Amino acid sequence: MRLLELGELCRWINFTPVELSLLMSATLIFSFLAALKLDGIINPSWWSLFAVYFVADGMLCYFALIVFIRLCFVGQCKIAAIRALWSFFQLLALLALKQLLCSKYDSHKQLTYSEVFTPLYGILVILMIRACQMR
User: What gap in Å lies between CA 81 and CA 26, rounded to an integer?
Assistant: First the structure.
């Protein structure tokens, strides 16, 4: 079985290595904090734990905006618009997923997991379409 290389992964999901490293850092910190919460060592709300991801999402939006502006200055406005739309759609869907997870875990709403993961399903469908279009 062959795994994706970094360049292939970045081209497939349209993230740069900097964005991927930011997401992996946020995932590492969140995993550590979630393990401490589930073991009963700390007792913050789920919204506080997911704040790590919310900060990372804000940084990713800022980074996508910078890339959009720089590509427009270079003269590649069409590519910039497509990349910005894709990045913001992904970030918006992931933000919705995280908010639904927080609502479910804090028991504010009685949601099923199929309802919670609906934004992720949308991202996966679009990724499958993109994978079929790539050479």
Answer: 27
